[in-house]
Amino acid sequence: MKQISVFNIIKLVLLSTVLFINLQQAFAADAVKEVRIAAVAYGKDGKTGFNGSAGVVDTEGWLRAELQKQNIKLTWVAIPPQSVATTINEDFANHSIDFADYGDLPSVILNANGIDTRLIVPGGRGNNVYLVVPPGSTAKSILDLKGKRIAIHRGRPWEVSFGRLLAANGLKITDFKVSNLNPVAGAAALVAGNVDAFVTLSDAYTLEDKHLGKIIWSTKQAGQDWKMRAEVWGTKSFIDQHPEVTQIIATAFVKAAYWTSQDANRETYINTASLSGQPADVLRREFSQDTVTWKARWSPLFDDFVSNHYRVVAAYSKQNGLIRTDVDVDKLFDRRFVDSALKSLSLESYWVSKDAGKDVAKDASKLAPKT
């Protein structure tokens, strides 16, 4: 047998050492140093807070602690409520964020334009949408507003709910004089008498309380799947490259959903959420007299309820010129992280899936109104 010289042994050791160092450097270069999550924010007493589940995750602190264990910095990117859809979509396109807690319609529009993101944690059963008119208006339904001036922020999640209301009444958006205004500007236009109606969220109750508006319709009067949705999305590239970090983020949001869903924490959640400027009583009314229980409201499950909702949103977007290409809804979902989180938290049986039934249409094209 040929003897290996001392020189060759030393050479092999040196080559192995260099290879090991190069591998370490490559791993270090690829390691995540920071995770950036965008969420709707508010200012209070000089501090920044976040709405919804993002606020619970931030306050609870588990996500930050878990990332710190891996020397990863958690950065919350504060997004003003007036420009959520545009700002977050631009941030995703510019690669300045990795994840975002935001709405369904802008997410579909983003993916249709070639920016690949994935839904990793569904945001429950959705939020209500309201149609508000001036307090002295004689309008009692959307039919009474045909030909009138309506303020709505186009491209925001509540547009689909409004479109479904129109379609259900045999109307289309060209039957109205639409002012494309963000929620703050829309409310101001209503109060000033510059529009005859305003499509908005739970701030509709604030307008009523101040005798500045009157609610004549809301999604509480419609099917549960008419509500708008907001949930956790991440860039496909980050998720593919760093599934273990993505899992930590997903688990944090599932933990937040579980905590919020408990009746014992309901008032705490509402009182904390009221720091954003919406009075606690307004939030209580948003959640009351609804067709969904408090526990089910926060379900993070990927079920037929979620998938059919996004089929409606995608069909609506294509039919109404918000996107030019079809969106494969099934490819938008990455279910593995919620499944793993539920298992690790022993919550596999806590929430019940909602399959396709009378509340959720199997044929999305029948529910996607042409406006």
For this entry, give a set of tags.
371 residues, alpha/beta, D-Maltodextrin-Binding Protein, domain 2, 3 domains, 6-stranded mixed beta sheet, 5-stranded mixed beta sheet, globular
Structure characterization notes:
The protein has 3 domains: 1-30; 35-126 and 229-367, 3-Layer(aba) Sandwich (D-Maltodextrin-Binding Protein, domain 2); 130-226, Periplasmic binding protein-like II (D-Maltodextrin-Binding Protein, domain 2, 3-Layer(aba) Sandwich), CATH 3.40.190.10. Strands 1, 2, 3, 4, 5 and 11 form a 6-stranded mixed sheet that branches. The protein has a 5-stranded mixed sheet with strand order 8-7-9-6-10, with helices on both faces. With 371 residues, it is an alpha/beta fold. Helix content is 44%, strand content 16%. A hairpin with a 2-residue loop joins strand 1 (34-44) and strand 2. It starts with 5 loop residues before the first helix and ends with a helix. The longest helix is centred in the first third of the chain and has 25 residues, at 6-30. The chain has helices spanning 6-30, 52-60, 62-68, 84-93, 104-112, 158-168, 183-192, 203-209, 236-241, 243-261, 266-273, 280-287, 294-297, 304-319, 336-344, 364-367; strands at 34-44, 47-50, 73-79, 99-103, 117-121, 130-133, 149-152, 177-180, 197-200, 214-218, 230-235.
